[in-house]
Amino acid sequence: MKPSALPIPVRFARYSGNSAMPSPSRQAGLGLVEIMVALAIGAFMLGGVLSLVIWVSQARTELNKTSEQIENGRYAIQLLSDELRLAGFYGASQVAASSYSAPSPCTTAMASLGFAFTDVGGAFNAQLPAALQGYVALSTTGDDVSCLSNARSDSEALLVRRAETSSVATATAGVPYIQLSQCQTDAKPMTANMDSGFTGFELLGKDCATSQKAELWPYVLRTYYLSDCDICSPSDGIPTLKVAELKEVGGALSIVTQSLAEGIEDIHFEYGMDLDTDGAPDCYVPDPRVDTAPAAANCPTSGWSSADAPSWSNVVSVRVNLLARSTEPSAGWKDEREYDLGRKDADGNSDLEGPFNDSYRRQVYSAVVTLPNVSGVREQ
């Protein structure tokens, strides 16, 4: 009997790192079509981002233009309002005027500023310059306006006279001052001069001692007008509100011009006339110098004067209307609107400004300002 067969052993093959094994297929890269699609999508997204950036930049630029126009308009109307409220202020106490004067805005001599003080039979008479004075058009005024540098000939102008709101202890040579007496024994309550020190100022203080003179108030004369340029040599073409101010330069009086607000394109003043001397305006007129009541103004028929100075002395309030425009044009904008500055034609209808049909943005600003230093005295 044959012995049984032994089982055949099973051998397992081991993997050697050097042996090759099958592996999954590898990605070889992007095709041309895929690259072009990716570039197109990227370009589209980049174009959208650039468009957004450009739109935001343009919006900010237009916002800056509008903000500047609003700021200039509001600043100009506030500046004129503040100045008008101080018109006719000649010091801490009020001296009643016996008469008024209306000197030229270009006056630089103390004797021509409109002050005069006389004693007639023991009665003190004071001639004072009117608190304000206006010009409907600089080309039609009979006064010398050559000191209003680069003024528009058809521009309205407003001249304001007053004293500074703070007094000084000593005088500076070449500066005009108003002195108000604080002593009852002084022969007159008020004087005006421009001598240095106290040579020309003899009014006394509260103790009536000759060693202590009454305080001095610097005199202010400012004329507000429009110009077609801010920088005029060469002209930048920006309409600008300017002021010509009486100032001391090198020990003498001179008219100094300064730009105040850019973009002020037009301005119109209407003057509230107090013809019954109760301190309240009876009507508003564009030119108080008329001898009779304007037909369209609904004014009282009495109280008018043929002289300019008394007419201006009856103004107790001013209605200010100004047109402010942006200093730079806006692309895609066309100004087809009309603006009402309060002007009237011969028939009493509104005389509107525009349309300008250009690319500048515009807005009208208005204010009615009472002259408390004029109206307050009349209310007493």
Automatic annotation (TrEMBL):
Residues 333-347 have a biased composition (Basic and acidic residues). Residues 333-357 are annotated as: Disordered. The chain crosses the membrane at residues 35-56. GO terms for biological process: type IV pilus assembly. It comes from the Bacteria. Keywords: Membrane, Transmembrane, Transmembrane helix. InterPro entries: N_methyl_site (IPR012902), PilW (IPR032092). This is Pilus assembly protein PilW. It comes from Azotobacter chroococcum. The lineage of its organism: Bacteria, Pseudomonadati, Pseudomonadota, Gammaproteobacteria, Pseudomonadales.
